[in-house]
Amino acid sequence: MIRNLNQVTFQGFGTVPPERSQNAKGFDKSAAATVPLSQAEAVIWQAAVDTWVANGNGSSILSVSADGESYLDFYLDKPVRIKAGVYFSISPFTGPADALLYSAQPPEPRGTRSADSLRVDRQLQVEGIYTFFYQEKEQGFLFPGESHPMAELTYVDQGALHSVADGQDLLLKQGDLVIYGPNQWHMQYADIGVAPRFVTMSFATQGTDLIPLLNRKFSAPQKVVSLLQTMLHEQERMDAYSGDIILCQLNLLLLLLMREITSPTGGKLQTANSVHSENEIIRQAQQFISSHIREKLSVPLVARQVDVSPSYLTALFHKNLQISPGEYIRRIKLQESKQMIRENNLNFTEIAAELQYSTVHHFSRQFKEKFGITPTEYAKSVR
Fold this sequence. Notes:
alpha+beta, 6-stranded mixed β-sheet
């Protein structure tokens, strides 16, 4: 981005004479060298001594750097004195241009840099939104899981919601937010007695990778909450401009989250290959369990499906989910049983048999231990 050139913005690189002065003291314009500027690339100089730079014909951009790596760009509309040691280059702004250089010792060439990188371009761009729902679910709802080519955002507006992806079961409470990546398998469920309300959006992006944001629980800052509220309002309004406004708001929301985790005070990102490998094993195990939940499952069977030993799978589940894979299977079977009870197509004996329980009494006992009420009491509460 091109900056305004003044003494404050240029601090650290040199001095800018007051604009009220007709002539910059120390700058001999008649003795200055005229330097043609290239549209393709700009010569990088390093000032050997204090060096005066001014615009000649046309309009030009002055780029300066303390280390020769990171540059700031200024609109060169007045003479400036660059202090010794500073790297600088000059590029035409629009059309042909030249610049004036004046110093007791010529600056030293240090290479070239592109002259077409002055414009600010998007680092992250939301290309499109596919779905945008405000969901109100019944108590103890279960979404068995899916993956799709789009990224997805879930924000809990009321209640609480379990988000399961990449080997983690995150409990999202009111005001929490999570993002799933393209083709990332995920499931969601609520505890007994909890009827969550939440926002879901599926979308596509380009540019900056979303990986640092995925499967992390964010306590949404107020700015993010306000953006979501604006998007919901625009969805209700839905005039000719609402779609573009929603896209822009989502883009800003993602950028704010990215800044939060990449700032010095943000959370540490888990990028080690070993962590990724462990999460992938757990994700595959969870996905297999979810898609075969009405079959007879065991820890050795699941371990074989993900090509690890039962003991290693158990260690991974304890490390990442704080439960055993056997307990996880039991939890998902009981969540599935709640869905089957709500559907009201089978009696309790049939549900127990469908989920591979040895007896209906065994099923009822585990249901009561997990949820604090019997299957009969739960059925009455949802019908």
